[in-house]
């Protein structure tokens, strides 16, 4: 059995789609070029995970689901208290809610959906969209992404503007017939700072669909970006997620990722520390359950001198789930005095569960420091005995151990709303 | 409420096919404190682990009833819920679970849904007992035994004992590695528990703990069985004279398991 990998959409379709949204000429051209590349480029090749039988390319594009002014309860439950004023909700690719405080807009901050950005801020969007971070040419899925991107978020923070409250985006997908092709851009200019939180949620438990998600983060000189995400797409969703950041001189990017999809997922998080003194911190919490297959990459490339990169990943594998965890620290020649550290820990709950943690240090410079730690293990039967000897049932003891195992990462997450949501999703998954 | 009772008859226990307990009889009732003493390697800790249901120990023969129920028909958590408690010699460290959360889970595991202990009451009880055990309040919020010193772990075991209020508790070498002050604190905790509804089995190879917790009965264990029983005066004689006189009396050359003549 092989999966059909040619697209069901042609030039004519893409042109009409772009035209119907009054997109600028450059975006139409980029889409058409991407469409051609989508036929030629190879699929991505995640290390040790065979995805040739996964369907990541065959999906319906635009949703015909009716729009509703009412936000569904699942979405309301996700809205953080602090974030309520600056909130974007996209449902099935269409804006269901979009608000930004007076204070932020008066400071020149842009926080809008991708479609609106293409119409109102075309030049600015062009500067960032699929150029320096994730390129159209990278693989077939990035090309498909560029050709068919439906919506997403565009955030632009001008020089020296420091946002005090977080921005939140919720991507909710309950039109089970269509794919989710979502793009996020965060551009933080010199010495600005912004915190962004996103939630992905879908309802397709059984119905198969595709998510193709790309995020690009640009932290200009001295800027600081905190990016929190809780991925919780349903079992029917096969996902390709590519989140990438570029940090200029003295910039900092913090990633706090809850990679908690229920379906097969390839998720890559990469940061390029381009400037001297730049800093990246990647923290991820991951759970696999059922017969789910996942591939997680967390990597930091050190290009600038005195750059610092930290990766911390904890994963729990249940049932017959299997996951690859690759942590990659690459220190390029010339990135003197840099420091790269990473830790991957995987806890397996059943005989059939598989977790594979690979800490990889690639160092082309002598004058650096780097370190890594990795462990893969099962629940310690003596620990279980200890908890049960106090009257706690086996299931409850396992639940405590899992929460405990993930807590050091959850606690370090930079945002209360992300922490809270993570605990909720973890709780649901470990029951 | 009937008086708690733990009755061990002709118990045999193996670990990895090696028999450690070789036909042991012992009965403990509510209100009684028993001490099982004996040199290292005579099977004392095996007895306590097997009673609680440690996964490495295999019961090959004999019967243990706990308040009339067959103990070995119960899972570990069921034994605990029925009122058995083991203060372990080497308690596990569990990262990411605070002491307080763990204790609340343990208490609530004994209660019906909807009847959980209120947070206020729990905190009040916890504060009171930690104070009695001279534990710093920060211990409530530290991860379970993680990074605790040997003595802190032992105090924490007694704290759990006091919070859970079991019917029968086994204290496995709770005194090992404790300085005299810590020993007194631990003894204070155990004495606090003393009442007709509570029975206790203290496993130790030193007599000094028994200076602070006076046992009703003292048993000497050698070669995987109880070879001599008596009152508190037996412990004092052991302290003064060691174990050699018992070996002589019984014709035992090497008291450790597997050295039977």
TrEMBL record, chain A:
Residues 174-405 form the SUF system FeS cluster assembly SufBD core domain. InterPro entries: Fe-S_cluster_assembly_SufBD (IPR055346), SUF_FeS_clus_asmbl_SufBD_core (IPR000825), SUF_FeS_clus_asmbl_SufBD_sf (IPR037284), SUF_FeS_clus_asmbl_SufD (IPR011542), SufBD_N (IPR045595). It comes from the Bacteria. Residues 86-168 form the SUF system FeS cluster assembly SufBD N-terminal domain. NCBIfam families: sufD. Belongs to the iron-sulfur cluster assembly SufBD family. This is Fe-S cluster assembly protein SufD. The lineage of its organism: Bacteria, Bacillati, Bacillota, Bacilli, Bacillales. The gene is sufD.
Automatic annotation (TrEMBL), chain B:
The keyword Secreted does not apply. It comes from the Bacteria. The keyword Lyase does not apply. Keywords: ATP-binding, Nucleotide-binding. Signal peptide: none annotated. SMART domains: AAA. Residues 6-248 form the ABC transporter domain. Pfam families: ABC_tran. InterPro entries: AAA+_ATPase, ABC_transporter-like_ATP-bd, ABC_transporter-like_CS, FeS-cluster_ATPase_SufC, P-loop_NTPase. Belongs to the ABC transporter superfamily. Ycf16 family. This is Fe-S cluster assembly ATPase SufC.
